[in-house]
Amino acid sequence: SEVGSGDVLVGLPTVPFRDEEVRVRLGPAYYAYLRVAEGCNHNCTFCAIPGFRGSFRSKGFDTIVEEARQLVARGAREINLIAEDTNQWGMDFGPDDERRLPELLRALSDIEDLKWIRLLYCYPSYFTEPLVEAIATLPKVVKYIDIPLQHASGPVLSRMQRPGPQHTENLLKKLRERIPELVLRTTFISGFPGETEQDHSATRAFARSLGFERGGAFAYSEEDGTPAAGFDDQIEPELRQRRREQLERGFQRRAEVWADRQVGRRLDILVDRMEGDVAIGRSYADAPDIDNVVKIPGAVVPFEPGMVVRCEIVEVDGLDLVGVVVE
Ligand code: SF4
Question: Is the CB of 215 under 6 A from ligand 1?
């Protein structure tokens, strides 16, 4: 189909959910990904997802809780909630079912052997007061939010058809204020059509001022059928890459500073695997498969994957941390 500027192809709401067996078995048994919604109603001009995933619809409350129970029964100790826009979960239920993400997080928290619940892929809206409160106060919900922002310059965000920088800055400041020790992960796109040096600098400055502990950048690439692919001010691929590297270096520097600050701090570490007598785990600040690890040398029986142990961080090893067990 032909797609004009400002339009995006949206699939039928009946596009089925992806096969959960495939989705949830991606990781080792002690962490799992649980898809809570499918599709997206946003119209980001660079994104083809709504075209093939369909419009946004949430998985049912009881279905999710049951899937989580099964995952925990099979050994999962951490559940990573995923969707195109995870924090929008439940907003399509309407008045007949008023349960939203805070209620879901509470229900998941009641699963006895589940230790951590993590929110990945959040959209910079939908952080209602009850949701912020739930994240801040529920002990099993890790104080980590993954919120891909894509850019931070007003003109670019406007052409991307995404929320503006002031809205997002206010939101992130509020989240930091309300959730002590919050770790924020984001993702930026470099070299979106028409991006000027000033736009790029604005994104770097935004990242510095918000101090993301985790982050990544991708060079823009044209997706077939999206409005942005038809914009006539595409940026040279080399420049997209150069700007991506600059953004990545900024994230790297902030991650290093954050890691240094952890020395002396006590953190719960979820052990993912053993490498000889070194237990390899993660703190709340490390999402599986993408962030860093915490190494616990000299770990002997009864260490086993899936355990959570209290450690004091004694050293930094690159971006990884080294800890000793204190309890
Ligand atoms: S980038 Fe995310 S929010 Fe935007 S259209 Fe794609 S899936 Fe939806």
Answer: no
